[in-house]
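Issue: copy button drops trailing tokens. Both records pasted manually instead:
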Amino acid sequence: MSQNPNLSQPFMYQNAYSPNNGQPPTSLNPNPMNGPPSQNTQKFSPGNLGVSPARMPQPIPPQGMSPYTAQNYYASNYSRPPSSTEPPMKPLQNLVPPPGGTNLSQSASPKNLASPFPVEKQNSPYQNGPFSPFNNSNSEQNLNGADPSQVNGIGATNRLMQPNQNMPPLSPWAQPPRMPLTPGQPNQKLSGEGMPPPPTSVPPQSLAVDGKAVPTLSQVPSSSGLPMPFGNQATNSSSPQVTPGTSQPPSARSSRNPSPIASQRYDYMEGQFSNKPSPSNSSLNLPSIGASSNSGMPPPNQRNLSDSRQFTSPQASNLYPPNMPYPPNSTPGSLQPGPPPVGSQSTPVRPRYPQQVGYNQSASPYASLGQPNNMQPPPVSGYNSSPQLPPTSAFNSSPHLPPTSAYNSSPQPPPAPTCNSSQPPYSQQQQPPGPLYQGGLPEGPVGGVAGYDPQLHAKMAGLSVHSSFSRLWGNDSLNLLQDRNILPPVPIEAPKPVLTPERPNCSPDVFRCTLTKVPDTNSLLQKSRLPFGILIHPFRDAASLSVIQCNTIVRCRNCRTYINPFVTFVDQRRWKCNLCFRVNDLPEEFLYDPATRSYGDPARRPEIKNATIEFIAPSDYMLRPPQPAVYLFLLDVSHGAIETGYLENFCKVMLENLDELPGDSRMRIGFITYDGSIHFYNLGEGLNQPHMLVVSDIEDVFLPSPDNLLVNVHESKSLISDLLTDLPKRFASNGDINCCLGAALQAAYKLMSPVGGRVTVVLTTLPNYGPGALKNREDPNQRAGKDISNIGPANDFYKKLALDCSGQQIAVDLFLLCSQYVDIATVSCISKYSSGGVHYYPGYHRTVGRLQVNKFAGDLKRYLTRRIGFEAVMRVRCTRGLAIHTFHGNFFVRSTDLLSLPNVNPDTGYGMQIAIEENLTEYNSVCFQAAVLYTSSNGERRIRVHTLCLPVVSIVTDVLGGADQETIIGLVSKMAVDRSVTSSLSDARDALINVCVDVLGVYKATMSGQVAGALMSPYSLRLLPLFILALLKHMAFRTGVSTKLDERVYAMERMKALPLQYLMKFIYPTLYPVHALDDKNAIHQDDDVVIPQPSILQLSSEKIDRHGAYILDTLDVLYLYIGRAINDQFCTSVFNVPNFSAIPEDLESLPELATPESERLRTFVTWLQDQRPYHSPLKIIREDSRDRHIFMQYMLDDRTESLFSYYEFLQHIRQQISK
């Protein structure tokens, strides 16, 4: 297949952000880089971006020991936080404004970059966020004459750029030809106040990206067959990106301070400020990216990181690891006790971990013998359940769990089992095989007169002792074409990193990486063709959380990492950072063990025993006194809104949960309604009833009574109740069809600016009046086309307003209840850039849309009562040599790696892509640490810290064997959304297919033996093609099926913001057979409740039996599908009806009957609904129902008019790999 020219560009995004010395832009011009990839011929060269100094706070002497408390997290009350902004930037040293303005048609270079960071001016309403259009405006002026693609600025959205091939790719996708680089000046990082200068100086290096020098990397050939996919994911643009989806590699730069207290300065940590300005004359030359040890790096014996504690004196420089000799090299082919390796290496490689050694399998006389019939396949869940085999490592991700994976010392995988048939074994009644064995052995007795089964014989011939060891070591391979029943019958467990020594690691529900074994070089990452990134759910609900209250929060003085379980104690008074390797002093307070209330080993502290910890921060982490929790509700009362009947439902839920709003006695609330005008409500003290104030001049909105529009909830509760009771009656006959959403949001911004808070907007129709008015852009005839237009916003009005809100710590959440087009692509920007959320209920109506009515009521209750953090910021740090270059989610990137979150909630997740900038060959492991600084509703400033540690490997088969297929799908789906917006939907689909083609092609190239007609996959990636096919058939990316534009865009928005555990169910729903529930494998709770656990089925119509009943969990709705031939006993026991035809379809819940079948089914449905934050209503679908197509459209393994079946998709991948 020929290469698609439209995919010759990398999957890369650029946002140009330039505060323009604190002034707003004068006009907007289009960005030619937002065009199709084939039109983006502009080449970029790197800019010389300076780095601000690390301003360190003065150490706080111990003033007593506050007891450690392990608080129940659910019992915590949260209140409004103070501001958490950053200080103004110091002017960059090496940037000189050009003599004249430039535009994107000119070649960018470091010489024409203006200094984008003013020092004193703070009056710009756009200083804290992007403001240029989303590839739609026809007028954008470059700020300060600087190329917006080269400055730290705002692009309208993720922009498709030319690549810089010198950066490491983060995906398995093909590389375009390398472009020449323009040399620049060396990047300078100013030393922090009170810190010693570095011991060595690095000679100037050539710049490639963000002021960092990079070496030239060898070109990686593109995969043949399908067009080039996402491209070089590691390609960093020359400026930070600031859309919710993208950003640039981290640096120590801070940013403009949008806080109301403009004179107060932060350092570059989460909210911790410095009272003294940092010096600007000291610098630290950074080494060349990927350079050898003699180019600015210490010799290998200084860079070798030891995980064992050493009580020795530190080296002259505390910035590098102490001297440590290399361990003796081991030859994989040598005879040593243990499991057999798969192959041998000609060149000894120093292991990153205790290698598995043993006999050479190629020399074994038994290597080619098949497994005897009486030999049971080895268990693989846990990978070390066999007591005869030693564990592969002494380090676990959890102290309570056994090692879950191991490493093979040879890059050669085992020979694949023989496959002589192109069709897989098939049986309609066959259940999917369990995770213990993927060979697909038949469940029934062996057929034939003499008991001979050719399928069994073929499978047994491919088994050997070697394959058993390979499964234990995580390097087992599968032929995907042999069995379509690849989905395990139980939920998929996250792979657990294996480290040495054993320490607690972060929970995979909070922190997961696409690679549980990190490649030690960028070239190895490129060779694996796997994306490298992390997904994090930082504010996830937890039943309990260890909370630490202390006078001094122990952090690294160099990189500001929080002390964690993976640091090394040099002695009782010093510890070595696991990210930058600096040796730091321990405060006296840290020697106190709060559990035993005695002084002793600092390793017994809770910070060392928990990978997730929360600190109660001292006053250093706040700029102003804690503000009260403020909630403002904007309600659409136009004629269309009244017809839906939502207002009665909303007011009812509000009245029921008014006392459950998170906040303390200072909590305030307000209401605004809007149609063609804006209605304010005076709820001040002394009034007998609420007073409505109408503002008709929406072009210049003002606040008629600012002091009484936001009132204390407890003091004015009676007036609030009267207003909520009266609102549905007051607008029952409203005939105004206009909707001035933009003006209402402007009024909310003016009302909330002094204190910040949360704005909740309910919208039912397209905003068609006043500021921010929109027009219908959807073409119904193009809903099933291959390339969908208007996925991006129509203008930047809501984006600009969102950035203003983010600067004042205001988050905006949208509830869209509509049957017609409302342009979600445009209005969602108000939530996307202010860390808000979007909730969409298509077809909402009080009489004909009862499913959506019930879902809205349940979701609103959760929304009103869930815990919330105000004025939050989040930063993710990683080991030296790694860099974060792209962010995904709803937020605003305040600086290059600091995410501004005016509100943070437990239902939102984030994604980051990682680049390997320097070799990790001397490291045994790498670490990531995410810190969220927020203020709870009880006025406490808190810091929640998560730390994840992963091993480093040097063999491509180990990298592939340690891949996390679910995390890869989660990250790739976010990248595909960005590709759809910046390029086209067809490009994103082709790139998704190439994910499978490239990764499985790489694995095929590593195999020593080839099997004709087979599609081999590592066990860790066995479900990757299944999930990729589900993405291709998902509402967000499907073609050939009529899909409303709003529904498609909303699905994309959810992919960017959903946490991984919910995202996977959103991509590939779960199917359960429930017609024969029993207590086998059931969950037994403490209150004697038994929850059945039926097997999980693949989404194929061949699994649906007419005699059965099935529940399909799609995250949003639970569908109960009942076959036409269902047993009458089931109908009587569950529905209290005699037969199938009498089962009602309008039931909103199952009848409560005193039968075992009814109790089991109701318990299981309730358990499913409790597994997610929002409400999932139950909908009953009979086989003869007109809604049957709703259920059948989720059978993703089946063939459709426009897409392959799962087996045909596997054949297509095999053909592309063979080309």
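Record 2 (pasted manually too):
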Amino acid sequence: MTIVQGPSRVSVRSAYLEQVRRIAPPELLDRDAELDELAAFCLDEHRGPYVWWRAPAWTGKSALMSTFVLRPPARLTGRARVVSFFITARLAAQDTREAFTTVLLEQLCELTGEELPIAAGEATREACLLDLLSRAAAACQAGGSRLILVVDGLDEDRGMTTGPEAHSIAALLPGHLPSGMRVIVAGRPNPPIPDDVPDWHPLRDANIVRLLGQSAHARDVERLGKSEIRRLHGGTQLEQDLLGLITAARGGLSATDLREITGADLAEIEDILHSVAGRTFTRRAGEWKPDEVYLLGHEEIHNAACRYMGPARLVDYQTRLHAWADSYREWPPETPEYLLRGYPRLLELKGGLARLTALVSEPARHDLMLALTGGDTAAITEVTTVQNLLLAAEEPDLGALAVLSARRNDLQDRNRRTPRTLPAVWARIGLPVRAGHLARGISYPDFRAEALACVGQALAETGRPEAATEFVEEAVIAVESAIPETVLSVATTIARAGMSSYAVRIIRDISDPAVRAAGLAAVAAEVPDRDQASTLCREAVESARCGEDPQSLALALITVAGTVSVLGDRRQAEALIGEGISTARKLDEYARCRALGSAAMTLVAMGDRDGGRRLTTEVEHIAGRLTDPDQRCAGFQSVISAAVEVGDVAWAERVVRDEAVEQLRDHLQGCRCRSAADAADFATAEHAASTISDHEGLFAALRYAAAAAIRAGEATCAERLTEAAEQAVRALRHWRELADVAVLVADAGDYSRARDLAIEVERLLRDTDTVVERAHERALIAEALAEVGDLDRARRLFAEVDAVVRRVTTGEFAAGHAEHLIACGLSVMGAEWALDLLAAAEVPVRGMTDPYMATMAYAILSRTCARAGGFDRARELLDASLDQARRVSPGRVSRAMTRVVPAALALGAAEEAVELARGVTHPGDRCSCLVAAARSAVRAGDAAACRELIAEAEVSLRTITSHAERAGPLANLVEALVLLGELDRAEEMAATILRPDWAAHGFSVVARARAEQGETERAERLARRITAPDSLAEALVGIAESVDDRKAARLVGEALALGEWTTALPVLLARWPDVVSVLAAAVLRDRGGGLF
């Protein structure tokens, strides 16, 4: 795909851009006037909507168009965004309507930041394409630019273009272009316009034709090239073989590859190739390996070669390619690049779907691609491509789709583990390509956007502004569908990279006025231009005042006041913070406490220590009146933070003594560490951090202090603090945070050590918990084998997994893994086995020292024990969980109870569970607990109790003002309403959820219920509103359970292409058990052996 803007090739990197490079000449001669005319067509308001550059073969059309796409004229910078497709037979699978749809969908999804749609039918994908074209054009117009579509080689469409069954690329080009979009097409005068293009279409308007004049350079190349083709075709056997293999392979073979296939001497091969290179053959550098590769120099040369050899000889050469490919099935490091990149496209074009499916299902091949590129983007793309090919069949091969789903899930899983800061390490040490592969491979869009922004910042700070801009533009696209918190993070990072215009653009797209105000203030603080920063601050204030929430207004005014003060406008800053304080004093006590605490710290930063002290005293009085433990703890955290800023540590220490809460003591030491680091007192910072008992808090403090020491140029202190931070991470075994240590090391200039740490992080994240993760999959496979009647193998596999789970020594993990295994194996292995496994899991749980984690671990054990029939022991475990909960710090006890309440419900202690739920103080967690009790009530047949609990949950929900915090509880309420049978109300509630992930879950639950009631069409319409792939897959599987086999197969096939293979497992077991056997064999084989 290709998306470019301006002459600096600022683009969304992709495989298709490399294909355009293979078409483009190294230098375009004598075409400056034509390039200028193309630019004028894009910009002139009175031109358009179409222009058709028409000329015979060998005129230089493709050279002109590819140069325009890769190196647009300078005046298009920031004013045009170009997407393109080059119809050509020289490159595999690039001359059909399907290829056109796929390539443009990929480009437009990158431009709009949306997920690539995986639709069951071609018509659906084409509808998606037209819809995306419209939205992309509107987005470009809103951003002050214009969408340009370039289609070259319209005459080379290999689809059916005549008669009533015509099915051409030209017919897909919209007749009415949206939002100022323009289309540039190029091709020969013949064949005529395809029959499926309507009479009114602009392509049939002769006035859009622009004749391209002959190029003497192109004519000379044509004459020499065709002459050489004839000579090679009639030459020695080796000359014929070289021509035949490169033609059959559709380009991309190196001289070494040709030596292996032909058995000829390398020097002789290179002599032949180099003697005609530039006319018959074009050389290109390999993308992943240094070897040069060869392809035919022009479409007409390729066509001539195909005519001279004939179909039979081409098939013979392709057979030799297959045999050669088979010799590399172990995928050693020396595997040729062609087998990783070009060969799959050849199989796609020639209909070798079975061979292609097997090829892209090979884990060893994808591991090699990861080693070469540093990411899994290419692997995931090729798997998705094959899934789409399988879905396009009349009857989808569910076995192949299931195997590919497992392969794609593996690739996505290892990318989900990629820390957002890790790609930036590679960028800082001078390896931006590896950084790009790693960042673009992150499957979750929010994390990908943050990673891309971090890479952009790293490149900007290391003196590579052009490369930085590329990544920042990608981050801007990726963040369009993100939650507001991610948008704020990305915008701040981009602003720090010196590209505030991009940051402001994405902040202004935030719909919530308060969040938008906070973002504008944060960006203003990073903008070097004071006038621009002041303008942003004024806009932030106006935005804050547009909101209806006084708490958000107060916090926004206080935040902006701090920024305005830094800019030097003290009078304005005092006015703003005064207004913020006045607004805060009208809030309820807890909200007032937090807002005034923030104001106290801002006053100190503005130089008003006395004002900050007075306000902190007021905050302390308010906090002392709070009775809710969570709120009281948070209120005194504000007091401690402000007291430290005022410089009165003794005051903060008194608060800690009076409250006697460990969480507050750690908070105080963290504040002392950060305050000392800001003052460059790194010895005090280190000492304060060393007294923090919570390992996560310890690491956060040390990381802050180390970064401050690096900025201050204190190399020795920085090294010591960084080493201490690394030790804290290794003690936690939180390997994602080790990436943050690598960032610190790179910032300090130790690139060798940073590289070693980055490699270690990648290895640890691949290896950590891999055995247990595979054990989870094996447990599911064992359960499936039992379902299809293979009990002996199921029991042996459960025994394998049991041995793995018993080796887990971390309490919370031991409990969770035992719960999963027992859920899968209870019916096969029996209650006695389950209770014995739980007893083994309890051993590491008893050794846990963190009350919060221990509370949740005991709750998991209790719930699982009850399900296994061990009710007396389950009661004891629940009591142990409640005992641990009494020692949990106030700020975390509410979240812990979300595990305890379901445990009580599983035990049958419904009244106790409801009492516990009502005692939860955090409104979101209380809502979740009440809904859990409501679901239990309706399952027990007590609809009245369910309704009462739902009503309580809704009251709790109304106290939550944050859309992000409301989303999860709302989705839980939707589930409860579905169980009650109130589907209309559930659907209405799902539509109010503003976080896409939770909204998708709500719609999925309702769609399944609609299908169960026979409303399958309505259910599918509802499901299609879901944009999250995993949730859409869940909805489709739910609908599939209620329709006939033919329809179900299409829905399940699409679900397998979208989500986890485990989602489809129940319906596969019920309807296609043979597919389960195929899937089980593949999963166990790919995970290092098993029972097959």
